[in-house]
Design goal:
Blueprint (H helix, E strand, L loop, with lengths): L5 E7 L12 H5 L2 H11 E4 L4 E5 L8 E7 L20 H21 L6 E8 L19 E8 H6 L1 E2 L15 H17 L5 E4 L17 E4 L9 H26 L12 H8 L3 H16 L1 H6 L7 E6 L5 E5 L14 E7 L1 H24 L4 E2 L14
Parallel strand pairs: 1-12
Antiparallel strand pairs: 1-7, 2-3, 2-13, 3-4, 4-6, 5-6, 5-10, 8-9, 9-11, 10-11
Helix pairs in contact: 5-6, 5-7, 6-8
Length: about 400
Amino acid sequence: MQTGPREIMTPFRPIPLEVPEGMAPNEFFNSAENLNDLVHNNGLLTNPEGLLMYRKALGHSNVFDTSIIYNTSQSVLNPLGRPVRRTQVPPQTRNVWNRMNQIMIEYMVEKFPDPAEALVLAGEASLDATWPLTSPGVPSIRMLHNHFIVFDMDQLRNAELADPSNPNLTDGGQHSLFEEHMHDVYRQFFNEALDLDILAVNNDPRGRLELTGYPQGLPCWEISGGVEALKDPRFWKEYDYLLKGFIDFYRTFFSQVSTRNAPIQKDSYFPDAIENILLFNNDFLKTAKTVRDRCIKDAKYANSIRWAPAFKQLIYRNDSGKLVATISQNSIGNAITELLGVVVKREPDAAAYEKAEPALVEKLLEVRQRLIEADLGEGIETEYWGASGVDAR
């Protein structure tokens, strides 16, 4: 079977939401009004920390697909001022967030134990204010949220090959600025700056999914201990280290692109490593100069730069059944699935969606019950399900 990214069609039930005239859809989706509708029509669980679990109305997969969002729509009305990554979440909320993530991933692996039958992933994409709200590719809900998705491997095997030039598939390999020009220093920075015990560098090319060949060219870390390691708070600290290291590298690089010989930013996480590794590396600074020179001469290129950190970070299960963590080097697209070579096209087809809905909702309610029992929230009643138990209506 040919290796390459796959494109699948996922049916959904059309959403009866009207976007106000003169307003872009992604502007409306960031509103408190839209989040209120999400809670009442698709909400599954909420807690005092402001974390909301909900069914994806426009899902990636109808096998299993849900999100947990840090719902600040009522408390932070400026969509550009909301927490959009785990490093910005208050410690108490982050502790609850991590426990919810642990239970969700454990459930997916338990219910779909065979990697030959199911692709399991959980992760988040950058929601930073890196582009204007109306630009293509800007997140539709600018609040921190994790995706929890399972794809049927037979569906992926039978799917058409995706166009590898699709801009959403250019996070790694030859397309990535970091990978092509700064491969060695990028990995050196992660290896020397971060204090990792549970996350172990995985340089084995078999870490890629054999079917898609993705993720391409990205540093990957095997999670020693698998699902059990996710119950250790140390793991989540290390998972945060990956993001902090990425942010430091990204911001340092683009500060040098913006201003020659720029100082280390005061709020850096690993200033010593920045000084000793990045700002004394010829490849790093040469690449910054190349990009800076092109920005000066090419207005279109300069306008395409995402000056603030743009990333996708996820945990996925590889073909060997190992849990692997990775983070993208220069996120262009939005969909977290494309980091693994899965392009999803949504198709409005209520009848097809309704065939898959009972099994999907049954699993969502089952994992919701586990969260309730762990004191991680209370169930939400909607038109489609009750507030507790698995009493789907």
